[in-house]
Design a protein that fits this description.
The complex is a heterodimer of chains A (about 625) and B (about 525). Chain A has about 625 residues and is mainly alpha-helical. Chain A has 25 helices and two strands. Chain B has a three-stranded antiparallel β-sheet with strand order 6-5-7. Chain B has one domain. Classes of the chains: A mainly alpha (about 625), B mainly alpha (about 525).
């Protein structure tokens, strides 16, 4: 049953990739069917889990022994527990909706079949990532989603910007992947096992240095995959991919894999205060940085990308809080998955209506032209800024609460982040749907077809009720507790004070944005004379410039030096050696002169040599 | 001592030698048009029957006679023909390998579609090169079937060589296998002067080395009072100090090292490989090496086993020289057959490591190595025989440029064989080298293994150069053509390639077999 979850989309990808053009006509429908059936299998698994008591909910499936070398044993085993099933439902549910949406979105693309094949491949890899029962197998899924992400970001590879963006995502992710492979190796060295259960059981036996190192390595991995500081730069460029990809991979699922990893490895973080602190700091930096970048973006998708960074920053921060935060990290991850996917699909719908223009300065007043998009996007907007009772409120509030329980500065960071989030999201709403129309010539905005709006509507329902459903219906904290553990936050600041304060900050941010962008006309061309801060935000807070100065240029110099050493030193030595051998060979050929008499003489010499050596030994 | 001949135990040798005699009778009495058919039946039939008999008797003896002492399988151990022939596991395994090589070699001998004038052998060996007679016979499309009796005697001699258990039998076997090869070497249809020169050199130097062997045998007899290995071994333990003994060992070593092509007794190899008809090079390059190594191992493990501390340093020197000189001289060769000749010298050096290891692992790894090397050599020269231009085989390396584009399948197969020679993993060459090197390290000859790795690195250069030529160099007007051969050559190449791959990917059954073959009987 568990294997079928992965098998179905994998089968889909295989058929579409190997079937080639023959599957063009029905390939997209087949992919949707595979993803949807995986979703139904996921639901069935979920239902059967509900029927069992909380200790028996986790299911293990042994497929085969994958690696057995010496004392290194890695089973190819899958496990579904309360944490995995939440991800399974998110991945297959949102994934299927986005598959459906893509039927419309990609309908004119000649490579649509390939697109769907990659989407299926992604779903399969992501499911492997969350269903693996050991870190080694998780690594396979981890790389699989990285591959799918790379393929889909650079899907429109005829555009140099898309090709470069794909490459960038790939390279930056490699840095993070080194972290994961180091973590796996360290685990094996320290604990002698790489299974989740085994590591959790052995964790207390590890010394603090090993635990710290493993924690840092895991954090590095999470930073790469989840676009956390300082490996955040690839996510904004990744928006070059088709919008459904941005919605599924770069908002709802793959980029949250880092959060999953940290929560899954909670046994390590539970025991290492230092590693946890590092996680919290990274999360706090990223949540502010992402929000900051979001404030100045005119590209609607990049604005959302900054927002994604920021929201994942919240999750990472929550995960770093330890047992008080794991549950809320996952809670926010799930609600975010719904509303952010909805927002991205809305953005895609807008772009679809205005000839693929992404510049919000060319939008304006779209609420009349695209009613469904306006309403669904609006509901997502309310959810992300955290207005009760929409989805984001429930999860974000819990994180802010827990953060204040930890440390006042961390709490303030989350609070400020909430205000800035309200600012940039209101700005986005105002510039897109309100104000006067600033449409380019020949653009006639129109609503998208039902195949695209229907998924948006379903996700909007999730944006509205998702938070409540998970909190009150699903009892998310007690549901996840058997897997990740849960503790109530230290109650320094009570929720009764915190909720009004948070709401006030959010409303202030939203109001400021509304005054600035909703009431005044928005210039069609972005003003050039802007403050230093705006300029910094427009330039992704100089993330690329820093990378270039700190890594690329020294790297180039190092490479040049190594190339020089390689060509002059090593190659020179090798070439010299080769020349020496060739010269030796040319010399030696002269002995082979073709005369039988000299051959015979050599043989006689050889016989003398043999006799000499034999007698030498005797002496 | 009562003289007894165990005819049953010697059957494979008898079958082949009898077939050789019958083959002469066919030449003498059967009308020309029927000879080829009959000869082919006789040759292939006798090889298959001998092989079948060998396998059947090996299993039978193994089942009834196997015993395990001290964890080492003893395998088959039996002395036949009053102690002059030893029927044991390694001997039978070598004979089996030789029969396989002979079968594939015979297929290459039988090929008639490659050369438009007929087969690879001279229309009339008796005509003078360049004479009017030769021109006429060639123009009339004559072919000769006299190669078959020679072939059968050579195979018979090869079968006897590795199981000879006394110096005289070994000497007789040496001559029985060598003399037909000397003749065959001179029978090339094309470039007959080169061929005859090769033949003469091979004969003169071969005779020279035989003299060493014979003289050495006489010296050993003078000390041990016997030519039988078992007796020699016992006698030598009492007379270790005698200088005559050392001289005897040295002289016998010269005779045998000549046959395997070890430096400094290798100089015939490039000339003979280059001049001889290619099917013969394939058969001889594989067969002689296998048979001679069988004899070399038996002589030095059984008769001189107790003296190994005396002769090991000498083998060290020879092995190092052989590996290095073979590899280094191959670097500058421009003729593919000469290059492969030097390569074969280098491989001799690798197997000498196994000999120097003087251990059961050394013996078993060399058996595996010889089997793998036999297949690869046959395949290599089979491919060489079908890459041709208007004047015959295109052996100059420049003519192989761009072959990969012209004939991808043939070029890829050749590349596979080259990879096997270089010892790239997933080919038989890797497994073989690994086994031999491992035996070398375990046997205390690690420096030899280091030299072997260095010379493998040098050798990789010239193997890779051919691959680069075939696949990464553009075709030019000199690029040779690949002729489509008959099924004889096709099957020979296919079988060799398959064996090269299988022994690289799933070598374990054969590795088990060589270990189970056990030790030499004494």
């Amino acid at each position: 049953m568990t294997a079928a979850l992965i098998g179905l989309p994998l089968f889909g990808a295989t058929v579409l990739l190997l079937g080639g053009r023959r599957t063009n006509a029905w390939g997209h429908l087949f992919a949707v069917a595979m993803s949807a059936s995986a979703f139904f299998v996921g639901v069935a698994t979920f239902v059967s889990m509900l029927g069992r008591s909380s200790e028996d909910r986790a299911v293990h499936q042994h497929l085969f022994d994958w690696i057995a070398v010496g004392s290194f044993h890695v089973p190819f085993d899958l496990q579904v527990d309360q944490l995995s099933i939440a991800f399974v439902l998110l991945i297959t549910g949102v994934g299927t909706l986005i598959h459906i949406y893509s039927i419309g979105y990609m309908s004119h693309d000649e490579n649509r079949r390939k697109f769907f094949a990659y989407l299926n491949l992604f779903v399969a890899a992501m499911l492997l990532l969350v269903l693996a029962n050991n870190y080694f197998l998780l690594y396979v899924g981890w790389e699989g989603v990285g591959l799918a992400s790379y393929l889909l970001i650079s899907f429109w590879q005829h555009k140099p910007s898309a090709a470069v963006a794909g490459k960038k995502a790939f390279v930056v992710n490699r840095v993070g992947d080194v972290g994961l492979s180091l973590a796996v190796m360290l685990m094996f060295v320290t604990f002698g096992t790489v299974t989740f259960d085994g590591v959790a059981k052995e964790a207390s036996k590890g010394d603090s240095t090993s635990l710290k190192l493993i924690g840092f390595a895991l954090l590095l991995a999470a930073c790469g995959k989840s676009a956390q500081f300082p490996l955040q730069s690839w996510l904004l460029d990744a928006m070059e991919g088709p919008t459904p990809v941005s919605a599924l991979i770069h908002a709802a699922t793959m980029v949250t894999a880092g959060v999953y990893l940290i929560v899954r490895a909670h046994a390590i973080f539970d025991l290492s205060e230092t590693a946890r602190t590092a996680v919290v700091v990274i999360g706090a930096i990223t949540l502010l940085l992402g929000a900051f970048i979001g404030t100045a973006k005119d590209d609607i998708k990049k604005g959302l990308a900054g927002s994604t960074m920021s929201q994942i920053g919240y999750m990472i921060l929550a995960a770093g809080l330890g047992p008080v935060g794991y549950v809320f990290a996952i809670f926010h991850l799930l609600t975010h998955g719904m509303f952010k996917a909805g927002l991205f699909l809305g953005a895609g719908s807008v772009m679809h209506g205005v000839n693929d223009d992404v510049n919000m300065r060319h939008y304006g007043a779209l609420r009349t032209a695209m009613k469904i998009t306006y309403v669904t996007f609006g509901l997502g907007f309310l959810a992300i800024i955290g207005i009760p009772p929409f989805a984001g409120f429930w999860s974000k509030d819990e994180i802010i609460h827990a953060a204040f329980g930890q440390n006042i500065f961390i709490g303030l960071a989350t609070l400020i982040g909430a205000g800035v989030t309200a600012f940039y999201m209101t700005r986005m709403m105002a510039m897109t749907f309100f104000g006067e129309a600033r449409w380019e010539k020949g653009v006639h905005p129109h609503e998208s077809p039902l195949v695209m709006t229907a998924p948006m509507m379903i996700l909007a329902v999730g944006s509205v009720f998702g938070g409540m459903a998970l909190k009150f219906l699903g009892n998310i904290d007690s549901w996840l507790e058997p897997v990740v553990g849960h503790a109530n936050p230290a109650n320094d600041v009570s929720n009764t004070i915190l909720i009004p304060v948070t709401l006030a900050v959010v409303l202030a941010g939203a109001g400021y944005a509304w005054v600035t962008y909703g009431q005044r006309p928005v210039p069609v061309v972005a003003p050039a004379e802007v403050s230093l801060l705006t300029r910094a935000a427009r330039n992704d807070a100089y993330g690329d410039a820093i990378n270039e100065a700190v890594f690329m240029r020294p790297g180039l110099h190092l490479t040049r030096a190594l190339v020089w050493f390689d060509s002059k030193g090593i190659d020179g030595f090798i070439a010299g050696l080769a020349g020496f051998i060739a010269a030796l060979s040319a010399r030696g050929r002269k002995i082979q002169n073709g005369y039988t008499r000299s051959y015979a003489l050599t043989m006689l010499g050889g016989a003398a040599l043999i006799a000499f050596v034999l007698f030498l030994v005797r002496l | 001592m009562k003289t007894s001949i165990e005819y049953a135990a010697l059957a494979p040798i008898e079958i082949l030698l009898t077939a050789g005699v019958l083959s002469i009778l066919i030449e003498a009495f059967v009308p020309r048009i029927h000879r080829r058919t009959l000869q082919l039946f006789l040759v292939f039939g006798s090889i298959v029957v001998a092989f079948g008999y060998l396998v059947a008797s090996a299993t039978q003896i193994l089942n009834g006679n196997a015993s395990v002492t001290g964890g080492q399988t003893q395998g088959i151990r039996e002395l036949a023909a009053s102690g002059s022939v030893a029927i044991d596991g390694p001997g039978l395994f070598t004979q089996g390998t030789l029969l396989i090589v002979a079968f594939i070699g015979a297929m290459l001998f039988a090929e008639r579609s490659v050369d438009p004038q007929g087969d690879a052998f001279a229309a009339r060996a008796s005509t003078l090169p360049g004479s009017e007679d030769e021109r006429q016979f060639t123009a009339q499309g004559w072919t000769q079937t006299e190669v078959w009796p020679l072939f059968l005697f050579a195979v018979g001699g090869m079968l006897l060589f590795p199981v000879s258990n006394d110096l005289l039998t070994m000497f007789v076997a040496l001559e029985v296998l060598s003399l037909p090869l000397y003749l065959l070497a001179g029978m090339a249809r094309r470039r007959r002067l080169l061929s005859q020169e090769a033949s003469l050199k091979y004969f003169v130097l071969g005779a020279f080395s035989s003299a060493f062997f014979l003289f050495g045998s006489a010296l050993i007899y003078s000390i041990a009072g016997s030519v039988e290995f078992g007796t020699i071994a016992t006698a030598l333990t009492n007379t270790l100090q005698d200088p005559i003994l050392l001289a005897g060992i040295g002289l016998i070593a010269v005779g045998l090292l000549f046959k395997v092509g070890a430096v400094p007794f290798h100089q015939w190899t490039p000339d003979v490989y280059q001049g001889s008809p290619t099917p013969l090079v394939a058969f001889m390059g594989a067969g002689t090496k296998i048979a001679a190594f069988g004899a070399l191992f038996r002589t030095f493990y059984v008769a001189f086993g107790g003296m190994r501390w005396e002769w090991r340093p000498m083998m060290w020197v020879v092995a190092i020289l052989t590996m290095l000189i073979g590899s280094i001289l191959a670097v500058t060769q421009s003729d593919i057959k000469r290059m492969l000749a030097y390569s074969s010298v280098a491989h001799t050096g690798f197997i000498l490591i196994a000999l120097t290891a003087t251990s059961p692992a050394g013996l078993s790894s060399s058996l595996f190595y010889l089997l793998a090397y036999g297949f690869t050599t046959l395949g290599l020269f089979a491919v060489v025989s079908i890459v041709r231009d208007s004047s015959g085989e295109a052996t100059h390396l420049s003519q192989w440029a761009g072959l990969g584009k012209k004939s991808p399948l043939v070029a890829s197969t050749f590349a596979l064989f080259l990879f096997a020679l270089a010892g790239i993993p997933l080919t038989s060459g890797f497994t073989a080298k690994f086994a031999v090197f491992a035996a070398g390290v375990a046997g205390g000859v690690t420096p030899l293994v280091i030299v072997a790795v260095i010379s493998s690195a040098i050798a990789a250069f010239f193997y890779a150069r051919v691959v680069v030529l075939m696949f990464f160099t553009p075709e030019n007007e000199n690029t040779a053509d690949v002729v489509v051969p008959s099924y004889f050559t096709k099957v020979a190449i296919a079988v060799s390639a398959t064996a090269t791959l299988v022994l690289g990917i799933a070598p374990q059954p054969v590795l088990d077999a060589v270990v189970n073959a056990g030790l030499f009987v004494r």
